[in-house]
Sequence to fold (173 residues):
Amino acid sequence: MKRTKDHFSRLNQKYERIYTQLQELLAKSPHLLSKMATTCALLHHKLSHFFWTGFYILIDQELCVGPYQGSLACQLLAKNKGVCWAGINNKKTIIVADVHQFPGHIPCDSRSNSEIVVPLFDTEGNIWGVLDVDSCQFEAFSTIDKEWLEKITALLKPNPEELKWLFLAQSNL
Fold:
């Protein structure tokens, strides 16, 4: 998908507004689950190229669906398969221009054509899940999405005690 410089400028400005709004909204709640739900809703409804927006949480070495917006989600993701596990295992953001070409892709919705996965870290640097975003468009995600989504997920950085509340097993921490 060919995009203009103007497109990227508008996208960056939109992310700036979203980030500012999330800073204000997330400051109002001490609860991680509420912050995750708010983040999903805002991203999903403000960014038109987002088809499915949600979190997968690492619980007892499984990726389980958390708060999300969009069509019905896969409840559990097969271990070490798909884009979400690639983000977990590599501990870095993964952008996939065409999910149909990604080895081991887990198709939760056949309308999904591209994906970005951002790993989530706690205050001690331990990975506890991912933000997963799908798009119906091919090549929907850019480095602008990557940079801003990493910055946005950093707003959710919990301490290990907060994660225990979110029912993560001690072995994951």
